[in-house]
Design brief:
With 334 residues, the protein is an alpha/beta fold. It contains ten helices and 15 strands. The strands form three sheets. Strands 3, 4, 5, 6, 7, 14 and 15 form a seven-stranded mixed beta sheet that branches. A six-stranded parallel beta sheet has the order 10-9-8-11-12-13, with helices on both faces. Strands 1-2 form a two-stranded antiparallel ribbon. Strand 14, helix 10 and strand 15 form a beta-alpha-beta unit. Helix 3 crosses helix 4 and helix 3 packs across helix 9. The longest helix is centred in the middle third of the chain and has 17 residues. The two termini are 27 Å apart. The model has no long low-confidence stretch (mean pLDDT 94).
């Protein structure tokens, strides 16, 4: 008897989004503490595109030097539990769940079904749609944790907070979360996305094509950089006393500097700077913070476009070209 199959996006060669193919592959079966989820929605993250290149370049040491070790794609997942393994205790078929597949499965949400340990998922809050749930696991959690240092310090009411990359995947969440904290928020984006960033609640908008915020003379209490393009030493000049600069990623040089130079110079300074090494994927308390803000009307996931799985290459290309204003959703039929 032939085993059941499913459609899934796979990438077996590094390169542009056009390297991604949609194939019929064997549908996974849940074993032990794993659950099989019929996907209803997924979302595209910058991390999905970074995995195609890969970026940073030293990631090849972990993902595969010549080609991806794992051809599956997609981190954010939202859907309905189809089947469960014998050791599963938290879910049963029919439950609506969402999660970040990265820590427990690596990837696989750009497919009709996803299978991962039950720890990868949480119940979708009552009244929340699958597509809203699919925007949250990776990007919104990064936004929360990027606005909190390892010691628990966060922006305070009245602080000046700058979000570099305010219109992308993480930025729109960060702008709104910082506003909910009572901060005065500046969003950095391209000029054509300024109105979108203002609609999120940003008090000020900087067009990075016209102004280098590190050389503008303005100073901030907190800078969250979603994708580093500046020298960490230059960025530190834009911090006020006791300010903090947190970067979430970028190319090799900024990431290495964020792990080494930033923390080192911070030891002899009243300002902290570095990479967000305390990232905890889909950390339940942070997910609760996010869903609480949504329930209170203080956070609204920004959804730019929706694509069917059959148009996965177009969805990835839209994000890769920097056109998205917020999240891009991959939809699946009921």
């Amino acid at each position: 008897m032939s085993k059941p199959t499913m459609l899934a996006a796979v990438c077996e060669r590094y390169g542009p989004p056009e390297r991604v193919e949609l194939r019929a592959v064997e549908r996974p079966e849940p074993t032990e503490d794993r659950i099989l989820v019929r996907l209803r929605a997924a979302s595209v993250n910058r991390a999905d595109l970074d995995g195609l290149k890969p970026r940073p370049s030293f990631a090849r040491l972990f993902t595969g030097f010549r080609a991806p070790k794992d051809p599956r794609m997609g981190l954010d997942a939202a859907g309905i539990v189809e089947a469960v393994g014998p050791a599963v205790s938290r879910f049963r078929p029919g439950d609506a769940v969402f999660g970040d597949l990265f820590p427990y499965a690596g990837a696989g949400s750009f497919a009709e079904f996803a299978c991962a340990r039950e720890k990868a998922f949480l119940p979708i809050p009552a009244g929340m749609s699958f597509e809203v749930a699919a925007t949250l696991p990776h990007s919104a959690v990064l936004a929360v944790q990027g606005l909190r240092l390892r010691d628990g310090r966060t922006p305070q009411a009245g602080d000046r907070v700058l979000i570099d990359g305010a219109s992308g995947n993480v930025g729109p969440f960060a702008v709104q979360i910082a506003k909910a904290m009572g901060a005065e928020v500046t969003g950095v984006c391209s000029g054509d996305k300024g109105d979108f960033v203002r609609s999120l609640g940003a008090d000020h908008v900087v067009d990075y094509r016209a102004i280098d915020y590190t050389a503008s003379g303005e100073r901030y209490d907190w800078i969250l950089d979603t994708d580093s393009h500046h020298s960490i030493l230059r960025v530190r000049r834009a911090l006020r006393r006791h300010g903090a600069y947190v970067t979430l990623g970028g190319t090799s040089v900024p990431i290495v500097a964020g792990m080494t130079i930033g923390p080192l110079v911070s030891m002899a300074s009243d300002r902290w700077s570095g990479l967000c090494l305390w990232w905890k994927p889909f950390h339940a308390p942070d997910v609760a913070t996010i869903t609480g803000l949504i329930a209170d009307g203080k956070l609204r996931p920004a959804i730019d476009r929706r694509y069917p799985l059959s148009d996965i290459v177009a969805a990835l290309r839209w994000v890769e070209d920097g056109r998205a204003r917020g999240k891009v959703i991959i939809e699946f039929p009921d």
